[in-house]
Design goal:
Length: about 180
Amino acid sequence: MEAVFSKTKEKMEKCLNALERDFSSIRAGRANPAVLDKVMVDYYGVPTPINQMAAVSVPEARMLVIQPWDASTLKDIEKAINTSDIGINPQNDGKVIRLAFPQLTEEHRKSLQKDVSKRGEEAKVAIRNVRRDAMDDIKKLKKDNQITEDDQKDGEKKLQDITDDYIKQAETITKKKEEEILSI
């Protein structure tokens, strides 16, 4: 039965990690190199992430500077950023690319907050789905007479406690991101 719990914790941890990764790519008015994680540059026919072909730095709160290691890739990086959905126009000065993050409007903040809230709910649903699968595993153990009915009840209670803990963590992560978006 401990194997069921460890497998469940591992899957729930993956749900939280996916949520944090998802949130890191949401632009909250501050410069965050993670917004470039999904931008792929066609580098000699191979889609390559920007962070593998350039140094990305944050010189000030709302500015990203991308300095490619190979100056010939500057135009390709600029093109990839323009075709991506990050919504920022790159400024190319021949040596580096600057991304200036505009101040978010109140309306955009509210829509981002709704999106964050929705993604938080999806993560909680994923965690509950993991719990459901684990409950099925415990019921199967009982059906196969590998555990007693008391063990089943104890296991289900422990599983619910684990689930409650991970749901609370997902809510904390979501609330933190919402506050980050709403802060000016």
